[in-house]
Amino acid sequence: MAACWLGAAALHPFVPRDPVGLEPPSAPVLAALSGGHPTAAASGAWSATVVHFANTTPDAGALEAGIRTSVRFDPTFQPPLVNGVMMLRQVGATDRIAPLLELGLRAHPGEAWFPWAMAMHVWLDDDDPEQAAVWLDRAAALAPDAIHARAAEALRSAE
């Protein structure tokens, strides 16, 4: 039963009141139910967000709230940031992506995925290939054997 409430608690800000008057616990209750384990609380919050995305017409504000709740519990827990930005893109909320990627860049400075994702965001959503190339250079510095450097060169030569 606690596991059900763990997931439901993450949706607390955007779940309508239950017809019988029960509401999922708030984030502090979720933290208590997790036994003080931040990754367990983050996972519960993220799981509830995935359920919302998969089983409703997703609301961008609700998705972002779920992502941020999960990241507040455990800033090192990557799935909400990695998958959450893709969910936001799918619902057309591209204006909410950059701030979440910035959270990932701060929490995971050695990961090439976050600068790569920022490059894709500024190229596809902001139509700024020059800035995308800068982000790809940053990704290439973190993962020199990956394709990032060649992608940055290709963007620059296409201008």
Could you explain the architecture of this structure?
- Helix content is 68%, strand content 0%.
- It contains 9 helices and no strands.
- The longest helix has 18 residues, at 38-55.
- It starts with a helix and ends with a helix.
- Residues 1-25 have low confidence and may be disordered.
Give the structure's gist in a few sentences.
68% of the residues lie in helices and 0% in strands. The protein has 159 residues and is an all-alpha fold. The N and C termini lie far apart (57 Å).
- How many distinct beta strands? 0
Report on the biggest sheet.
none
Order of helices and strands: HHHHHHHHH
Estimate the helix proportion, in percent: 55-70%
- Tell me the strand percentage band: under 5%
- What structural class do helix, strand and pairing data support? mainly alpha
How far apart lie the N and C ends?
57 Å
pLDDT below 50 for ≥5 consecutive residues: which ranges? 1-25
The radius of gyration computed from the alpha-carbon positions, rounded to a whole number of angstroms, is 18 Å
Helix count from the secondary structure assignment: 9
Name the shape in a single word: globular
Set out the fold topology.
Elements: H1 2-10, H2 27-33, H3 38-55, H4 60-73, H5 79-90, H6 97-107, H7 113-124, H8 129-142, H9 148-158
